[in-house]
Amino acid sequence: MHFEAEQVVTKKNKTVILRPASVDEAQALIDAMVDIAETSPYILMTAESFRKQTVEDEVKWIEKYANDPRSILILAEFEKKIVGILNFGTNKDPKTRHRGSLGISLHHSMRGEGLGELMFKKLLRELARVEDLLQIDLAMMGDNHQAYNLYKKVGFIEVGRTPLAYRQPDGSFCEDVQMVLPFSGKKSPKTSNGKI
Ligand SMILES: CC(C)(COP(=O)(O)OP(=O)(O)OC[C@H]1O[C@@H](n2cnc3c(N)ncnc32)[C@H](O)[C@@H]1OP(=O)(O)O)[C@@H](O)C(=O)NCCC(=O)NCCS
After folding, report:
1. Among 37, 17, 21, which residue's Cα sits nearest to residue 29?
2. How far lies 138's CA from each of 100, 141, 161, in Å?
3. In angstroms, what is the span from residue 149 Cα to ligand 1's centroid?
4. 64-100 pLDDT tens trace
5. For ligand 1, which residues put their CB under 6 angstroms from it?
6. CB of 38 closer than 8 Å to CB of 48
7. Residues 144, 148, 153: CA angle, nearest 5 degrees
8. Domain 6-182's class?
9. Got the DSSP string for 120-165?
10. What is the model's pTM?
11. Weakly modelled stretches of the chain, pLDDT under 70
12. Taking the domains of the chain in order of start, what are their residue ranges?
């Protein structure tokens, strides 16, 4: 999805640009994800698997978001460096295309100053253009309290937990938490039994 870049200011008074990704920054995007995975236990992929990603694959990944009017990839840039990545895509199957899911991760130096919320607000503004989007789904590791609080703050509701969902490198397990955000699409949702 195409969208216009926007400037936002974090709680620590840093001016950050929220903008689309360009294909010539594929390697920078891989490097940013390596850094994020190295500094957070809550990312599903490991730093090692990000390191193995090729520039060609990353270019395809960026193009997929740029060319699909129902998907969006928002980068946060601070001092010419990628410090945040938010990707959202809608489902393709006719029975689930009213739903989408997302992932968000910030560079360790930019966590805890409200940038996640600013990126979500930008996402929700841009998603208003997506026809028939009624629900945003996400899944997260149960002990990621910062992410949980952010998601609650922007309106997500917890709908379920899967025990033993993830095993960390130290051998400990944690739950998967599923959350949804009802999205005010253009049509009012109706269930098969007629109830909303
Ligand atoms: C999770 C993440 C996206 C949150 O974005 P953020 O901008 O750092 O979020 P914030 O610091 O604004 O925190 C959101 C809320 O959680 C609260 N919070 C902050 N640190 C916390 C902590 N250690 N424990 C519990 N709550 C915390 C804050 O109080 C804040 O609410 P407030 O604005 O009302 O004070 C970001 O920290 C990140 O990328 N982390 C590493 C990767 C990751 O976990 N991605 C998500 C995978 S599901």
Report:
1. 21
2. 9, 10, 12
3. 6
4. 999 999 999 999 999 999 999 999 999 999 999 999 9
5. 40, 42-43, 104-106, 111-112, 114-117, 140, 144-147, 149-150, 153
6. no
7. 150
8. alpha beta
9. HHHHHHHHTTSTT--EEEEEEETT-HHHHHHHHHTT-EEEEEEEEE
10. 0.94
11. 185-196
12. 6-182
